[in-house]
Amino acid sequence: MSSYVYMTFIEDQHYINLVLSGNPNAFAALVDRYKDLVFTLALKMVINKEEAEEIAQDTFIKAYQSLHKFKGESKFSTWLYKITYNTCLDRLKKNKKGKTIAYIEDFSEHQTRTIENVLDTIDENDRNKAIQECLSELPSEDAFLLTLYYFDGQSVEEIAKVIDLSTDNVKVKLFRIRKKLAAILKKRLAPEILDYYERERG
């Protein structure tokens, strides 16, 4: 656990303890820390801004009401994202809608790595922007998982807890999603850069 993650863990636990000790106002600090990402994750799933705002609100209400059940066995953020994910699934089932996606060519592991190598060479802001733009072309759940993986740095183990799957299943899922992402990114990246990496790392 990095020192930053450890400090976040300690701070989260401090506010949780305050709330459980009878200081409900302390929950505002947790809302402030996680509201942007909870909203972003919800938006990836339901696509509609108003619905995403409602889901984010519901998520924090549920988290507040269930805070006594949080045992600290995982990070607070992991527990919170699980509530977000389940709230989104409930909403999607109710609305019976999800994002569909056109067929994407099957990429080999080498091609996927080539795209990721290119991403590693470009400026972090450009990289994040490119990934963010491509997420809109992925199915809802895939976009949700990649947001956790790329933008919140959640480990495979933490993602497994969020979506209730084994770590092996999550690894397979992430690999398949990254292949889809690579196919979308390929259309956006300069062909000469891709050719260079195909030759260099082939």
Jot down its keywords.
202 residues; mainly alpha; Arc Repressor Mutant, subunit A; 76% helix
Description of the structure:
Mean pLDDT is 83; it is low at 100-104. α2 crosses α4 and α5 crosses α9. By secondary structure, the chain is mostly helical. It has ten helices and no strands. It folds into two domains: 3-95, RNA polymerase sigma factor, region 2, helix turn helix motif (Rna Polymerase Sigma Factor, Chain: A, Orthogonal Bundle), CATH 1.10.1740.10; 109-201, Arc Repressor Mutant, subunit A, CATH 1.10.10. It is 76% helix and 0% strand.
Briefly note the structural class of the backbone.
mainly alpha
Query: Low-confidence stretches at least 5 residues in length (pLDDT < 50)?
Result: 100-104
Strand content: under 5%
Overall average residue pLDDT: 83
Specify the number of helices. Answer: 10
Fourth CATH level, the homologous superfamily of the largest domain: RNA polymerase sigma factor, region 2, helix turn helix motif
Look up the CATH topology of the largest domain. Rna Polymerase Sigma Factor, Chain: A
Gyration radius, rounded: 19 Å
Oligomer classification: single chain
Task: Write the H/E string, N to C.
Answer: HHHHHHHHHH
What is the CATH C level class of the largest domain, in words? Mainly Alpha
Residue share in helices? over 70%
Biggest β-sheet strands, sense, barrel: none
What is the count of distinct domains? 2
Quick synopsis:
The chain has 202 residues and is mainly alpha-helical. The chain contains ten helices and no strands.
